[in-house]
Amino acid sequence: MRLFERDIWSIFYILTAFFTMSLIAVAYSGWHTIYKQYQTSQENSLKLIANSTHSLYQTNGIMLEIVGHRFIEDVTYKDNTNSMKILDAALLESPAITAIAIVNPQGQMLFATNGLDVARFPNLLKQEDSRESFLAVMQSHHMMFGRTYYFKPFNDWIVPIRKAIRDNQGNVKLVITAALRLDDSFGFMIKNVDQNHQYAITIIRDADKYIQYASNGSENNYEIYRKPLSQERIDVFEKSIKLAYGATFDELKRTEHLLSLPYKTEDGVEQLASLKYDSTYKLWLISMTEMAVIKSAFAQLLMIYITIFVAIEIILYALVKVIFNADKKRNSDLLYQATHDQLTGMPNRSYLQTNIYNWIHDSSQPFSILYLDLDRFKSINDSFGHQCGDQLLLDLARRLQLIIPRDSTVIRHGGDEFVVLTPLVESREVLGFAKTIIDTITKPYTINNLKLHIGASIGIAQYPLHGESFDTLLRSADIAMYESKKIKNSIHLFENSMAEGYLQNVKIEQALRNAISDNELFMVYQPQVTPQGDFYGVEALVRWQSGALGLVAPDCFIPVAETSGQMPAIGQFIVQQTLKDIKEIQSALARSFQTSINISVRQLMEPGFTDDFINCIKDNNLDNISITLEITESLFIEDIHSIRPLLDEIKGHGLSISMDDFGTGYSSLSILRNLPIDELKIDKSFIECMFIDEASQKMVKNIIMIGKNLGMDIVAEGVEMKEQLDILKVFGCDRVQGYYFSKPLKKDQLIQFILNTKRSM
Ligand code: C2E
Ligand code: CA
Ligand code: CA
User: Fold this and answer.
1) pLDDT, tens only, 16-64
2) Residue 630: enclosing H or E segment and its boundaries?
3) Which of 16, 294, 305, 387 has the fewest CB atoms within 10 Å, i.e. is most exposed?
4) Which is more confident, 152 or 539?
5) What is the Cβ-side half-sphere exposure of residue 660, based on CA atoms within 13 angstroms?
6) How far separated are the first and last CA of the chain, in Å rounded?
């Protein structure tokens, strides 16, 4: 994964982790807030309930007191009718009270409302069940209330309340007792406070642990009122309080503190419980909320948080994805740009390097790689401009793409080099394919109204036969291409023997780089004489005494210098050194003579060649020397159109032109006629064969005749024997050069040679 990709996803994961942690923190605090909210609201309502309960008892206590005193003050209270009136009026005033009765201090019921038959009521003092509570009422100055119980005559659950009424001396005159309807009193009060029925409210009598009121009492069919709470439950509850607050029931009774705590009922239901003690009426007030309710409220909140979290995550993810995709697109665009040639849009060298592995790895299927190099594309660039060169490349690329089958790939490997990968391997097929390519791209191009021609050389290597790795494969194709370069528009399939020559050339190329700076190059001069044996001039020939390779023949290193781009520097050395030497020799001998300098194809094509050459002559004050440039015949034929202006320019500067190696190429007479050539140099291969085959002799004779007809001087090179000289004399050859007269000589040897030879100029 790339760095940016990793970074952006890391940011995403970090943010996700951060949001997750935030969610946990917010949820945690949310839980506490909700819990606290429930607790506070339960505590508040419990306080209200405690107050309401307190005032329920208080108001009813006051009411009993008032009613009781009315009785005492009314001396006629024994009069039934009046007493009943008082009681009925009291009943009306207190809606929660369902019945009132008056009991004398002896426990005998005297009056009762609701048409109750007082005679049928047992004496409260005498009856075992009620004796104790009756005595407690007689002794207390407060209102007393009994357990909640089912009162059959009313068919209802009631809470009995009693109060002893005293005279001014404090003697109990009577006991007034009333029945509070459970639902109308407690039920009504609690419904008022807890309208939503949110809490389970229980009021417990501390004295006997009977439930006075439970908001869910009716749900239990009132059974809970029939027996006290089990000691076990009480103990569990007290233990919970102790655990949460370290407090006992007794301490709570004393302080009347309200406190809340989590609590688990005996049937395992978790509750949030709040409790408070009312010391006046000795009541425990307990409110409970099921934890499930709080949890569900929390769950709702949590859902909101989670929704927000998920939304943020989705947005974040989408954002990251968008950035990531944009980056990916940018990268793939960059990758496309990096792997495709800008001019032609073709895959380039980087593409080849990355994708060749698909060819090599995907299938061990054999395939062929064609290395295509355009011949002298540079001269088109130099002569007609880069725009023209680009246009030609574009046209050529289009042509190539049209003929390349789908399963093959064409790559622009360099400026004028292309590589084609094709699954074709059968020699005949692949050579045919290469031939089609050459035929296609050698057809003329029309650019800016100019008709241009370009040649191409193709080298072919096959996988895995000629290399199992990309590098060796490409090198093999390159070697084969190098072989093709020797013949115009040719195709070569790689052969192992090619590699040796190639390797030798690589060595030469390496060593040649330091040849000039290490002073390994020097010039020798081969004399040219007239058939009569008079000294005429010299041909300058370069020598390379390589430290690494020994003496390397110019035939071997000049072509390497040309293909490796070292010819301009070497050419410059040749010209400068020759002119310097010749100047020295001529001044030493105080005479001038003709000097021929070989000019290689690339040298001549180098932009500014003529100017540099002329400047060099001027720099050496050699204006008076007659110089001939030897240009090999094959060059003339190759590009007659572009060569003509060059030759005219050279001639314009007073230099002569010699056509070298004449006879090896295929120059036509018209070429000879149309070019400003001063001298024809018959190749030494013809001179060599003159005594072996008659055709050669005829050829030499004809060349001399034609040349002379066109007003040219004829020079024969490679003259080794007197016989050769004699014939050439007969044929009318103007000059001769060869071992018969002299081998190429060093500067000092040349001086000696000239001094020993007859003078002809
Ligand atoms: P070339 O221009 O045809 O040069 C003549 C070659 O024939 C020279 O070989 C010379 O030493 C050799 N030669 C002369 N007389 C005889 C003879 O009687 N018998 C035989 N067997 N050979 C003779 P060299 O010097 O090895 O040069 C070979 C080629 O290298 C030249 O062919 C020329 O194409 C190139 N060359 C040599 N010097 C230069 C140079 O300074 N510049 C350029 N551009 N090319 C050069
Ligand atoms: Ca020559
Ligand atoms: Ca020659």
Assistant:
1) 999 999 999 999 999 999 999 999 999 999 999 999 999 888 888 898 8
2) strand 627-632
3) 387
4) 539
5) 15
6) 81
Using pLDDT thresholds of 50, 70 and 90, give the confidence band for residue 124.
Answer: confident
Rounded Cα distance, 514 and 551, in Å: 15
Beta carbons of 348 and 412 less than 8 angstroms apart: yes
- Which single residue is written with the structure tokens 């029939």? 226
Instruction: Tell the residue nearest (CA) to atom 28 of ligand 1.
Output: 555
SS3 content of the chain, % helix, strand, coil (to 5): 55, 20, 25
- Taking the centre of ligand 2 as the mean of its atom positions, its distance from the CA of residue 153, in whole angstroms, is 151
pLDDT for the residue numbered 760: 45
pTM: 0.53
CA distance 198 to 190: 11
CATH number of 15-306: 3.30.450.20
- 520-559 pLDDT, tens digit per residue, is 999 999 999 999 989 999 999 999 999 999 999 999 999 8
Tell me the fold of 522-754. TIM Barrel (3.20.20)
> What CATH number belongs to 349-494?
3.30.70.270
Backbone φ/ψ region at 680: left (φ over 0), alpha (ψ -120 to 50), beta: beta
- Which of 508, 522, 541 for a ligand 1 pocket mutation test, highest count of atoms within 8 Å of Cβ? 541
**Residue 469: C-alpha distances to residues 212, 427, 480 (Å):** 99, 21, 17
Whether the pLDDT of residue 161 is over 50: the answer is yes
| Nearest-atom index, ligand 1, CA of 740 | 18
Domain spans in the chain, listed from the N-terminal domain onward: 15-306, 349-494, 522-754
Question: Which residue do the tokens 């895995």 mark?
Answer: 464
Residue 668's pLDDT is what? 63
Q: How far is the CA of 454 from the centre of ligand 2 (A)?
A: 27
Domains 15-306 and 522-754 belong to one CATH topology: no
